[in-house]
Amino acid sequence: MATDRVDLVIRKEGEQWCLFTADGSRKLGCHDTEADAKAQEAAVKAHEAMQRGISGSATILICLSDINASGDFQILNNGDVVKSIPLTDVGEDFINGGRKFSVTPELIDQAIKNFEASDKAPLPVTIGHTEDSAAPAAGWINDIFRGEDGRPWGKLLFFKDTWAGITAGKWKFFSAEFYPVDVNQKGEEIGFRFDGGAILNKPFFPIRVDQSRHGGAGASRSNASPTAAPAARRQTP
Questions:
Q1: Which of 9, 10, 187, 190 could form a disulfide with 46 if both were Cys (CB 3.0 to 4.6 A apart)?
Q2: Which helix or strand (DSSP H or E) is residue 103 part of?
Q3: Which of 140, 110, 143 is nearest to 125 (CA)?
Q4: DSSP 3-state percent helix, strand, coil across the chain (nearest 5)
Q5: pTM of this structure
Q6: Where are the domains of the chain?
Q7: By the 8 A CB rule, do 224 and 196 touch?
């Protein structure tokens, strides 16, 4: 359930540093050092952000990639497949889960910056969206970059068995998971951040990909239909 932002303040009481709500109605804890009080403040803010759906389990989901329509792919010696696909569309006033958000060029730059700041740690791709941190990966997002069409693209590694299921028609879409406004471990806002993705058959809204417009490496050129606006925006639980 979403919650309103709560302003906090740290006050010294005797020999301790205490964290209060700004209106003074609640004391959230006291500590021997100001640093410990600030650490609690950061933790409270991070938890609050998760409850607002800015980060955490309320990841906003968006899907636009017909996996089989977005360019060339490379088959590795072990049978795994490397393929670049768009991660989100670009626009404003998307609505999902009752929340409105935008995906702007500036936010895409933020997302790429945050990915690079993590030393490009691979992001998991699962079968269907899940909150289980131990769920087996079906692949990985190994890079994020801006395509020639202005959208963020991901360089994905699909495991051999996953790719076999895709080519057999078991799964049709890729759905990115991201936080429009994420926070770091200190509770500081770091902006837009991708968190992974899922292979599924019931996307938020499907959009056909024009292969000739994307910026993926080794992209094929074709006469695929231009990107079409969705007939309806599907709410993803």
A1: 187
A2: strand 99-103
A3: 140
A4: 20, 35, 45
A5: 0.65
A6: 8-51, 59-213
A7: no
